[in-house]
Structure formats: structure tokens, C-alpha cells
Amino acid sequence: MSECAKFGEMLEAYALxxxxxxxxxxLEAHLATGCSDCAKALAEGRWLVSQLAYLASEAAPSDTLxxxxxxxxxxxxxxxxxxxxxxxxxxFWMWAGVAALLVVTIYSGWNAQRLxxxxxxxxxxxxxxxxxxxxxxxxxxxxxRAATIVTDPASVKIALASTDLQTPPLEAAWHSQLGxxxxxxxxxxxxxxxxxxxxxxxxxxGGKPVPSLTIRPDADxxxxxxxxxxxxxxxxxxALAITEEPEGGSPQPTTAPRWVGGIS
Amino acid sequence: xxxxxxxPTAHREVSPDATLVNRLxxxxxxxxxxxxxRHSRPIYSLVLRILQxxxxxxxxxxxxxxHLWRNAAQYDVSRGPFVPWLFTLARNRALDTLRLKSxxxxxxxxxxxxxxxxVSVPQYEQQFDEKRRAEKVxxxxxxxxxxxxxxxxxxxxxxxxxSEIAAALQEPLGTVKSWIxxxxxxxxxxxxxxx
Lengths: 264, 195
What we know:
The complex is a heterodimer of chains A (264) and B (195).
Chain A: H1 3-8, H2 11-16, H3 21-32, H4 36-50, H5 63-83, H6 92-151, E1 156-162, E2 170-175, E3 179-184, E4 195-202, E5 210-215, E6 223-227, E7 237-245, E8 259-262
Chain B: H1 16-24, H2 29-51, H3 54-70, H4 82-98, H5 103-112, H6 130-142, H7 146-158, H8 162-169, H9 173-193
Helix pairs in contact in B: 1-2, 2-3, 2-4, 3-4, 4-5, 6-9, 7-8, 7-9, 8-9
């Protein structure tokens, strides 16, 4: 691999600011040699990385920000204009009046900014309370849904037996419209940040396990996992399985199933 | 090399942004207001995503636009398009605010010295308007594996290095490097393929 090809693979990561110090230093030394191919590729890499800004959710700054900015730039524009203008014969008493007016204006501006900050703080607190309420409502809705799934006679009950004799089994209920609820008691807590991940085993011959949600039991080994929108239909699924996976889950199982339950 | 040789830099049209920035050199407040109206929302969205606080985010956005007002001469149209330049400036300011006096801050400062960076738009991308481009970027990133997307977001929005991301995600360093590079290559290919 030529030097340019080797460094070429690092350019996007460099533009992203993700290179660790030794790689960054080596690449910068190469760029310092004046390699025009890498410089061009880096410029395009920077453009590519800048497009990631569009991943941010759309939001708008407050109208007061624009007002503050325009106030500042107008003042600076006027100042720049007057600095080159010829001196006028304005009497001293008029300058004193202007100075007094300036003091009042500065105080008013400071006071307005303070009030603005108070309003912003209050708005932020109100938004936080509103978000908290929405979260609680969402939790309540999820709890109601889970209770309905567990108690509805139309739900299919699935017992997930452990693959070792010491570990208690898990229970699941699957309602064709409302989803799956998986519950556990005295479940061993996975080590470190690892989690338990639910898999749907398809009926189709050779079908790969379909990944679903992850959960960590609490310190007592209890958990309730609601899957409101299962990734497969019950009619196409022959069993549920649970494996232990890294935090965030895996696209395919990386460990053997700890619990398995067939759907009758 | 990313179709760089095909970029017709000599005949590129002067963008409205370049014209407005040029008017800032004459301290034209109206040009500043137009630039603010055109770009304050995406810039604020980016900064808010990094800082997660509306008050601090507005302070950074104010800082970015005042920097533009006071240092318009730093932007040179021959060195690249305006919007990525402004995104880079805003991201660096937001990350500086996020992590002062850390290793990441030192890395940012290293890059800040390079501002304004040279940014080249590949030829295939020049036809897209901002809205379509944003949709394409979001669609592509949504199609990546969750851990891969997370790795790219940690780098871009939190300023983490490869090794910091590997530690945060508890994944091998080589895996994280591959995720980030392959993710960016897919984004590049996607933008190329749909031209």
C-alpha cells in the first residue's frame, strides 16, 4: 500500500476529529509534505463530514437572539461609519447629554438582558416539567398496555425454560394486536454492562433469529419488558429466545440462548 | 480521489452566500440579517444537538454569527462553499464549550488553527438543495446498524476519538474504526449513486 493510500483511509476520520494522537501526528506530517492528492481528498472529506450536521433535529433559536445580534451589529456598523467621518463641531454640553443618554441606554439594555435570561430560565424549567409529565404519561400508558397483554385471555402465554437447572424460567404473553410482555423474577443479572436480548425465532426453515429489545434486570432480578411492535408476526414465529449481549444489543446472537420457549 | 479531478472550480457560479459575505466587508447590516435568516436554524440545531441546552446554545450561535460579522474576511470563496465552513466553525465552537481543558479540547484547538478549512463540494453534490441533502443524509444514517450510527454520532456530536468511542461502547478499537470509515464511505457512495 502506498503512503497516500494508507493516509487516504484516515482522511475522513481526521476531518471528523476522531483520529487518536499518534495517527493524527503521522497524517499531519504527511500533509505537511504538500501532498496535493491528500489535500484535495481531505477538503472533500471535510465537506462529507459537515453533512452530518443534518442529523441534528431541526430547532429554531428564539426571536430575541436575532434582535440582540442585530442590535450589536448595527451599533458596530455605526461605529465603523463614524470612525471615518469628519469631525463635527458639536458643543461639549451636547456630548454630555449624549453620554447621559448612553448610560441610560446601557442600563436599559443590561436590564432587558437580565429579564430575558429570567424568561429563558422560566421557559426551560416549564419545558422540563412538561417533558417529565410526558415521560410519566408514556410510562403509565406502557404499564396499562403491559397489564392488558398479561390479563387478556386472547394473549398466548409462553413459558421460557432456562437452559440450566439453577436459573428460574421466564414468562411471556403475546397479544396479536398489543405486542409482547416478557417478565422475570430472580433472574441472574448479566455481568458489567451486558444485557438480555429477546429474539424471535422464525418458523421458516433456515430463518435467522430476528433481534428485538434488550433489558437489564434490577438488583433483585426483576424485570418487565414490553415489545409494543414485535418485528415479526406471531403466526410466523415458532419460539422466543433470550441471549446475553453487549449493551445496546446485537444484530445477530453472539452467545447461546439462556432461555427458550416455543409458541403453541 | 472522490472525483476531485472533475470539480469545475474555475467556472463555479458565485453563490448568494458568497455575495452576502462579501457585503459584510462593507459592514452591511442587511446582508448580515439575510445570512442569519438563511442559516441560523441549521446552525442552532447543530449546536443544540451538541450542547443540549437552549441558553448556552444561543450564546454559541451568537458567538458564531458575531465572529462571521467581525471576521468576514476570513471566509474566502475560493477555499470552498460557505455552509460547510459555517457548520465547521459552529461545531468547533460548540465542542470547545462542551469540553474545556481536556484532551479533546486540545485536539479541537489543533483543528481550529486550520480555520477556515478548505472544503470542496464533489461535483455530484452541487445540484442538491439543502433540504434534499438533509433527507438523504438522515435516511442513510438511519439504515446503519445502531452501534455504527452511535459511533459516528459520538465522534461528530461529542468530539470523541476512536479510542474514546471504543471505550464508551466497549467494542474493539478496530471495529470502531471500521464502523466509522464504512459508515462515511456508505454516505459518500449513497450521495454519488443517486446523482
